[in-house]
Prior knowledge:
- One of its GO terms (molecular function) is penicillin binding.
- It comes from Sporosarcina pasteurii (Bacillus pasteurii).
- Helices cover 31% and strands 22% of the residues.
- It contains 23 helices and 32 strands.
Amino acid sequence: MFIAYGGLFFLLFGRLLFIQITGEAEGKALASLAEAKYARESVLTADRGRILDRNGELIASDTLSYRLVAVLDETLSDKNVIRHVDDSERTAEILAKYIPMDKADLIKRITRTEEDIKKNIRKQVEFGKAGNEVSHETVLAIKEELAERDEKLPGILFLEEKKRFYPNGVFASYLVGFAQKELDENNQFKTVGKMGLEATYDKELTGTDGKVEFQSDKWGFTLPKSEKAVVPAQDGFDIKLTIDKTIQNFVEDAMYEIEQEYAPKKMLAIVADPETGAIVAMSQRPAFDPATREGLTSNWLNEAVENTIEPGSTLKIFTLAAAIEENKWNPNAYFKSGQYTLYDRTIRDHNRTGWGTITYLEGFQRSSNVSMAYLLEKIGDRTFIDYINRFGFGKKTEIDLPNEATGTILDHYPSERLTTSYGQGSTVTPIQMIQAATAIANDGVMMKPYVISEIKNPNTGEIIESKKPVKKESPISKATAEQVREVLATTVTAEGGTGRRFALDGYTLAGKTGTAEIPSGRGGYLSGHGNYLYSFIGMAPAEDPQLITYIIVQQPKLKPGEIGSDPVAKLFKSVMESSLKYMNIVPDGEEPIEAPKIGDYTKQDVSEARTELEKMGYTPVIIGEGGPVLVQYPENGAKLAKDSVVLLKTEGETTLPSFKGWSKKMVLSFKMLTGLDIRIVGDGYVTEQSLSPGIIVSTKEPVVIHLQHPAEIYKQGTELEDDEETIIGG
């Protein structure tokens, strides 16, 4: 017995010694087995890159959302703590108020049957689409209701996630596009760009998740003194656009009004900077909300780039430019209007009978097709087509957007060149029209259009790509461009000019109307009142254009006595006048008003500073409990309009002001100075806040601020206390 047990002891001792020395058992490394058993990994989710406007204002970003989960397993609870849904009816009653599921369906979802318990299934359930991407505001509302009742909702979990956030609603929808969550090859949800810039630049916008590796016990708790290995998440690249958020909002608001009044089949608006080719606004109707996809139809085309149109009389601008450049334009020469015949093809003016014998200048002002035919004779039809090619028609502009169409310039027969001279038959894209118009507005220098300003790596601050204005070959001289603008200005000012209703309040305007027939799809064109594509391309101020705006309205429902250019003019004037004023371009006959500069109030007692600011007509807001001013915003020397808000930071706790009527910029400044957890929903001006004014708040307590655009507020019958200029003064 002694020998047998002694032998076994030495055998076991030898085995342990072998394992200790080699670190292996049965040919397997024990360290690796332990690592696999006790190593844990936590994912650090990367943010998808932001899409910003030219001034850094947010267009799209990731934001906090929640996924709703219900725990049904009773074994997780004990006599001290309830961790499962213990009252299905009461839980369903509360949740039904906040998520799109009715009470009966909720009760069925969160009730675990005896069969479930027997099969050991349905220990935890989710709520499908209704429980995904639950907003932070909804979670707060549920918690507030429970707090008021002094109740809890056991078993209901809100798991933090990220979703794509589009704070502006319907805003350049077909340009920006949208991204949504999809299951990847690892059965994990991943945000993927599906349309527009979100899809085109999906690779650049997509970040790389990080991870935290650590050692844990068998229950998953981190072991004491275990080292953590952290691989930081790499957020996706930020993309800054040339779009100006304010001008884009002018476009969206104006299009909404025209849509309500005229219900056109389609609309399009593009606003560009002629000096650089930068697109500062681009929108179309029908449109959709990228957050919900509400309004999205089967048409996914960005009409400005991917679709072609017959431009109508707006193309006469470039026929005129060719004639002037070729020294074939004599504005005071006469021709017989009404009709013109080339071989067996007869064309007529839009009023069918013409205006008798008139000058070429009057013919252009009245948008005479016949005047273009006679000009074509003088230029030569092949020379004319050469100019059309020089202006970039019939080929891509190479804008930084996908699927650009080329259009077709008909050049097989003399009759095709004839109809092209006044914009019928041949097709173009709206972005080609903008590019060609830059040559007129920019003294003969044609600029390539673009929408991406820069792409930046937010993790390192490195600029990955920076776009600069690109000049294309000049199709005409500076003198020709100036003369074309002078003629275009007369279409707005002349008694018989087709552009008279487009005249701007306080600004000179050069532009041209267009009325194009719409192909019926059966070899002909549509007919009847309003069954046309109406357009206008204009640049202002006429002497030195700062903006080009191209408007298209297709098949509007016109009232008796109205003509097709009425909705176009309303849309154009609203956008152009608002944009020029926003750009501080002084109207004719007015002197620029110099806003006073704010002084330096730092180190001054806050009560004295407040008194001085109030005397100057400003609205001071105190941050803190008093004493000397530590920081002020805006800073010393800033120009401020009367009634602008001035923030004065002192020592002490922060008392919440009334944010109503504040601009987003001022709310962000308040957030920066106070360090409060302020969460902004929407854009425009503040209409609501989650916590009442006058209470003291800490940095740990979230404050939700709701903003709306002026047009939305007006629709709801609500008025802001102050407009943009009186709130912050730039």
